[in-house]
Structure formats: C-alpha cells, structure tokens
Amino acid sequence: MARIVYGVMGDSRGHLSRSLAVAGELSRHEIIFAGGGLVETVRQQGYRSISLPMLGTILRNGAVDTMATLANTARELLRRRATLAALRRELEALRPDLVVTDYEYFTPLAARQLGLPCISIDHQHVVTHTRYETPPGQRWNRLCTSLPIRLLFSNAERFLVSSFFAPPVAEPARVELFGPVLRPQPLQYTAGTGEHVLVYLRGASLKAVTELLDGRERRYVIYGFGEGRGTANCAFKKASVDGFLEDLTTAAAVLSNGGHSLLSESFHFGKPVCCVPTGMFYEQYLNAWFVEQLGYGRLMPDIARREILDDFEARIPAFAANLAGKSFHGNAALAARVEALL
C-alpha cells in the first residue's frame, strides 16, 4: 500500500468529483487530500485533508471576473512562502510515495522542493499540453487562459489529461491522454429515453433562461434555480444528485455550460449537448468547440441565440447517432497508469 497526497483545486465540484473518482479507483492505497474550498468536504467521506488557500477562478454575472481572480491570486502568492513552509512540514511528516495535483498550486511546488514525485491529473492541461487550431475569435482568450496554466499550474513532472476529445499531445514523454473520469454515482445508472431537455446553466440569469425556453414546444427540466412553479413547458427542480441523474439518463438532450464533467456524463449516456460556455472561460469554450467539431452537439456562444437552439433540437437524432457506440469512461485506464507510476 502506498501513501498518496492528492492536491485539489476546490473552487468547483468538477475538480473534486474527478479526484474522488480517481481516489476510489486507488482505494487500496492511503489517500490524503490537500486544498481549500470544497476539498474540506472529503472529511465527511472518511478522508484526511490538509487545508490550503486557493488560487481559484472567481465567477460573477455568468462570466469570469478577471480582476477579482487576479487580486485573489496576487494575495495568495504574497503569502506563498509561509504556505509552502507549512505544507513542506506536513509532507515531511507524512513521507508520501506520490503527490498528485488536480490543478492545485501549492502541492507540486512543495513536492519539487522535497524531491517527491508529482503527477498532474486534470482536464485543464488539454488547453496547454496538446496541439489544436485555436477556435475562431479566441486567440486572446486562449492566451489569457494559457499563461496562468503554464506559469502557476504546470509544475508536475508528468501530466495525465482526462478528456472526451483527444488532440495530439505536445510532449509525449510527459503528457498522456485518457478518457473522461466519471463519478461513481452516474455509473450506477443506465441510459433511458425521453423527450425533455435537461438544463443546467451555471451563472445564467433566471430571466435569460426563461426568455430562451418559455413557450417552446419541447419540455425542459431545469436545475440551478431551486424548485419553482415553472411554466407550461419548464419545470424547475431543487438540487438533488439522484434526481439530476434520473433526469439526465432519461433526457433527449442537455443544455448546459461547457464544463467537462457534465459534458462527459452526458456523452456517457449518449445525450447530445448544446453548450453555452461561461463568458471568458476559454476551457469551456474549447470544450464546446470540440463538441460541435465532433458532431456531438452545438456551440451556443450567447444564450440569446435561439436559432442555434432551434437547429440543435432539430438535429438531436443525428448528434445522438454520432455518440452511439463510443466510450467516455477512462477511470480504470487512468488508475492503472497511476499504479504503474507508483
């Protein structure tokens, strides 16, 4: 049995759910998490955790708040020396066999200072560590995203990138691609059939969502705004893991942002997606662009573009046919690679 310290960015559930899924695959080893925000919730599942500050992305009004994100990053970098000193003491006491980072800043730096092996497992490095044509109109957005990834989050020795799309890697000796890492809960469900569209648009306003969907012929099941009365064709539901997965597995399609976790789960169940990327969130835009390029759905750059939703819904059967028979489950292969690296 090995001891693994697993650093996780705690500003969104995507990082944490992927890390917990990987930890579940490595259950014969001792896993100790490190991070801030949502990471501390792992204690409820019986894991130990080390508290760390976050260099997270801050969202406001449905878009990345660049100035607030930069201010938070600068504040934590000014405290970096003290944070790293405390973390080194923790690692020296634990003496881990491996350090893993899912887009966490401090753990790979402390590992390097102590001469500990460190690997990265995330989706974000598909942005910087693979080769692809920049989507039209996104050069500045790509640059603004790539710089912090390279400067702040690329200190591991090796990168295991989880992704539903697979462009060529830039450095085959250090970078490997795997299929999506799925949470355990979706794997307990099987895909069904239905006519509704599941809607989860983090950061969008209720007004914008209702203006887009109200009065259309199709029925929409909407999460993220709490439970409400809804309209003739729109049902608003309260947050529920089981309820969400039930509605996902029986949906005809999904309308969501470009987050990799929900895209991967949707594709696992054969559900096409119409993507509305969060503003100035290049990783989400890139995901959505590949969704469209691969024929798995449509990229909808503005929530007001009703004509794109019209086209998407008309082509749901064709998009579903493109997804049929494909695998979007890379948990076992990625875990086997980690075992080989121990």
Automatic annotation (TrEMBL):
Oxidoreductase keyword on record: no
GO molecular function: glycosyltransferase activity
Keyword Transferase: yes
Alphabetic keyword roster: Transferase
Domain of life of the native organism: Bacteria
Transmembrane domains' residue ranges: none
Alphabetical list of Gene3D superfamilies matching this protein: Glycogen Phosphorylase B
Listed name of the protein: Putative glycosyl transferase, UDP-glucuronosyltransferase
Origin species: Megalodesulfovibrio gigas (strain ATCC 19364 / DSM 1382 / NCIMB 9332 / VKM B-1759) (Desulfovibrio gigas)
